[in-house]
Amino acid sequence: MAWAMDLWSKEWGGTVMVSQGRSYRLTDLEQLIAWDGSERVGLAAYHVEEDRAEILSLNATTRLRGIGSALLQTLESSLRRRAVRKVWLITSNDNVDALRFYQRRGYRLTGIHTGAIDQARRIKPSIPLIGQYGIPIHDEWELEKSW
User: Fold this and answer.
1) First-last CA distance in the chain
2) How many structural domains compose the chain?
3) Nearest to 19 by CA among 120, 138, 126
4) CATH code of the domain covering residue 26
5) Where's the N-acetyltransferase domain (predicted)?
6) Integer angstrom CA distances of residue 6 from 19, 25, 146
7) Helix/strand/coil (H/E/C) assignment for every residue in 75-123
8) What is the residue-wise DSSP string for 1-50?
9) What's the whole-number average pLDDT of the chain?
10) DSSP assigned state of 70
């Protein structure tokens, strides 16, 4: 658990994630860890409610090695076996790499929540104002995949 907490702290600025105004602690989520031999190389954190699952984070310690793709594929297979019919996630409007990643794997953009990140900063002030590629962070993008 300490490794996952350190990863979330590094990647997300703490061990609490805010999605659509709701706070999630890493310790309250199901987790799937990717391994390369004896080394942890990725983490998916998610929660399941009835026949829907929300991915709160999908992190690979090294980019462009297929870790994220393998994690996502393994997670989706596991969720299918559990009779989950829909997987969804939220990402911030600066995360254009995630938008590309998920769309290439069959996820569809289903919503834009204008100002949601601005409101989330009230709960988690550590959310930066400026994100990837110098893009100001204000909104949440919602993506989903059904089967």
Assistant:
1) 31
2) 1
3) 120
4) 3.40.630.30
5) 1-128
6) 20, 13, 32
7) HHHHHHHCCCCEEEEEEECCCHHHHHHHHHCCCEEEEEECCHHHHHHHH
8) -HHHHHHHHHHHSSSEEEETTEEEEGGGSEEEEEEETTEEEEEEEEEEET
9) 93
10) H
Q: Predicted confidence band at 72 (pLDDT cuts at 50, 70, 90)?
A: very high
CA atoms of 106 and 143, how far apart (whole Å): 10
Could you tell me the two tokens for 134?
């110098």
Contact 20, 139 (CB under 8 A): no
pLDDT digits (tens, 9 = 90+) for 52-71: 999 999 999 888 789 999 99
Structure tokens at 46: 């998610």
Q: What is the mean pLDDT of residues 8-37?
A: 86
Q: Which domain holds residue 136?
A: 2-146
Query: How far is 131 from 118, CA to CA, in rounded Å?
Result: 13
Tens-digit pLDDT profile for residues 73-121: 999 999 999 999 999 999 999 999 999 999 999 999 999 999 999 999 9
